[in-house]
């Protein structure tokens, strides 16, 4: 028995200080998980239950430590937005995971960019339709090298920021998450069985905005390093 077409290669994220790779199975994203970002998007930041959306695994673009990755400006948009996020990588599967043991399922952490065709997302939202064309397009999820939990510092109270051509656009701390990493993992596991290889984009703070061809974004999470992406 053979495949009738060639299978796509496994998307894999580098691990800091190692030749090993983290294979990506699924990509989950948490919407509006910082209060100030919820307000700038026109929503009440009260602590309502988290909501999730997904990106395909091959939307992940691994960015090696110290590299600047060139990413093409996507089609059909005139309002291409950056969103810096803490990324949690799942190493132990489970469903209906208690909050108290949720962090035991996290293998490590990294920094990611949830790139967004904002105009298309807003159009779909206004029409009551899914967000996929605004969120789940090609190369929409650059991710820097992952660090195992033991080498990740304190990702639960870390500064995160985004600069465009050296000018700061976003800055906050992960302690400002409305739903913590543990709470997010626990809640997400009620809807999906989590498996090793899943990654979770945990939400972005205020300051999201457009990036243009020729500009370079640098996303940083304290203790986890930076990733650099140039739009071409």
Describe this structure in words.
This protein is mostly beta strands and 232 residues long. The protein has a single domain (12-231), classed as Fumarylacetoacetase-like, C-terminal domain (Fumarylacetoacetate hydrolase, domain 2, Alpha-Beta Complex). It contains 4 helices and 18 strands. The chain has helices spanning 35-40, 118-126, 132-135, 181-191; strands at 12-14, 21-23, 27-30, 52-55, 60-62, 68-71, 80-82, 84-90, 106-113, 116-117, 141-143, 147-148, 159-164, 167-173, 199-201, 209-210, 216-221, 225-231.
Give the overall shape. Answer: globular
Q: Give the terminus-to-terminus CA distance.
A: 42 Å
Radius of gyration: 17 Å
Count of helical stretches: 4
Structural class: mainly beta
Q: On the 0-100 scale, what is the average pLDDT?
A: 95
How much strand?
25-35%
How many beta strands in the DSSP annotation?
18
Largest sheet: 6 strands, mixed
Q: From N to C, what is the helix and strand string?
A: EEEHEEEEEEEHHEEEEHEEEE
- Outline the low-pLDDT stretches: none
**Which strands sit side by side, in order, in the main sheet?**
4-3-15-8-9-12
User: How many separate structural domains?
Assistant: 1
- CATH-defined fold name: Fumarylacetoacetate hydrolase, domain 2
CATH class call? Alpha Beta
Pfam families: FAA_hydrolase
Keywords: Hydrolase, Metal-binding, Pyruvate
GO molecular function: acetylpyruvate hydrolase activity; fumarylpyruvate hydrolase activity; metal ion binding
Domain Fumarylacetoacetase-like C-terminal: 27-231
């Amino acid at each position: 028995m053979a495949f009738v077409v060639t299978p796509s290669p496994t998307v894999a994220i580098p691990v800091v200080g190692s030749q090993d790779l983290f294979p990506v199975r699924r990509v989950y994203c948490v919407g509006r998980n910082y209060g100030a970002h919820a307000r700038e998007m026109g929503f009440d930041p009260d602590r309502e239950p988290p909501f999730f959306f997904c990106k395909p695994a091959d939307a992940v673009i691994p960015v090696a430590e110290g590299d600047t990755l060139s990413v093409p400006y996507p089609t059909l948009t005139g309002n291409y937005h950056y969103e810096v996020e803490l990324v949690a990588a799942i190493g132990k599967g489970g469903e209906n995971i208690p909050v108290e043991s949720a962090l035991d399922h996290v293998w490590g952490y990294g920094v990611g960019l949830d790139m967004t065709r904002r105009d298309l997302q807003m159009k779909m939202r206004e029409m009551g339709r899914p967000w996929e064309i605004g969120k789940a397009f090609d190369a929409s999820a650059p991710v820097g090298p992952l660090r195992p939990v033991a080498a990740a510092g304190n990702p639960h109270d870390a500064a995160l920021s985004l600069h465009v051509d050296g000018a700061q656009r976003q800055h906050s701390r992960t302690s400002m998450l409305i739903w913590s990493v543990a709470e997010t993992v626990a809640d997400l596991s009620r809807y999906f069985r989590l498996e090793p290889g899943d990654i979770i984009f945990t939400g972005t703070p205020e300051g999201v905005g457009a990036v243009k061809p020729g500009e370079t974004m640098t996303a940083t999470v304290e203790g986890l390093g930076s990733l650099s992406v140039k739009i071409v």
